[in-house]
Design a protein that fits this description.
Order of helices and strands: HHEEEEEEEHHHH
Helix content: 25-40%
Number of helices: 6
Largest sheet: 7 strands, antiparallel
Structural class: alpha+beta
Number of strands: 7
Strand content: 15-25%
Length: 263
């Protein structure tokens, strides 16, 4: 069966928003947001129906994209960076996601597959020798299949961890630095829009604060937080129901600084 009109409309709407978001990001001047346009083109291509595994049957309710690296350039070295005074610092962000149209605007997990990679690269000169620097973070969705054994270590369905697949550990000298696969830190899901906001808020705070004053940026973020974060947050709170909202004195914005507060 072909893509339905409802799914087509949904995909086109998301594509339009990604193109709009790319136009907003151009104001930063420290990145070329064309990967967002690539993702938008994939959404508009109705012959492209993503699969987790190539042998999976086609599900025409599935939608998603795989972005090339979106590269941000650092004007200044972030504070507390070691080794000190690295040069040519860049951050690359890539996102691959597959989601189910029928799960959206419901309080359930909308994703089938998610992979977010954040990689920071630079160079450092020591004793007249140029040394490549790299650090990497990875967010993904743990996929459980029928018949799988329970994981040996705790494995939250959405988790962030240091290292990840983009950090090639072979043939690199990490000095006295020790890299472990754990911990897998519980984390909220993100698409490319929310991932960009995550990167800006953590690595480019002045540009982030400027964009948070931009109405287009804020409106898109608000919508995507509603789509992706509301089901996640409400489902976690389900563990402690019922509760009296009037007794809650912990403000959401202090817990979760990236949240767009209010309507």
């Amino acid at each position: 069966m072909p893509v339905s009109e409802k799914v087509k409309s949904f995909r086109y709407e998301r594509a339009s928003e990604l193109d709009q978001f790319a136009r907003v990001l151009k104001k930063l001047g420290n990145c070329d947001p064309y990967p967002l346009n690539v993702a938008a083109d994939q959404l508009r291509n109705l012959e492209f129906v993503p699969k987790v595994d190539k042998n999976d049957e086609v599900n025409y309710n599935y939608w998603g994209y795989a972005t090339p690296d979106l590269v941000f350039y650092f004007e200044d070295v972030p504070p507390h960076t070691y080794p000190e005074n690295p040069t040519n610092l860049t951050l690359s962000l890539s996102v691959k996601h597959i989601a189910d149209f029928t799960a959206f605007k419901l309080l359930q997990d909308p994703y089938i597959h998610l992979e977010v990679n954040v990689v920071v690269r630079g160079t450092y000169t020591k004793e007249l020798k140029s040394i490549e620097l790299i650090t990497s973070y990875h967010l993904d969705r743990h996929i459980e299949k029928s018949g799988d054994n329970s994981p040996e270590y705790v494995h939250p369905i959405y988790h962030f961890q240091f290292g990840g697949r983009k950090l090639d550990k072979k043939f690199k000298d990490f000095g006295s630095f020790l890299i472990l696969d754990s911990p897998r830190i519980v984390h909220y899901p993100m698409d490319i829009v929310l991932s960009v906001d995550f990167v800006l808020s953590n690595f480019f705070p002045s540009q982030w604060k400027d964009l948070r004053k931009d109405g287009e940026y804020v409106n898109i973020l608000r919508e995507y937080q509603e789509l992706f974060w509301k089901p996640y947050a409400h489902s976690k709170a389900l563990n402690w129901r019922p509760y009296d909202e009037g007794l809650v004195n912990w403000q959401p914005g202090s817990i979760w600084p990236q949240l767009i507060i209010g309507k």
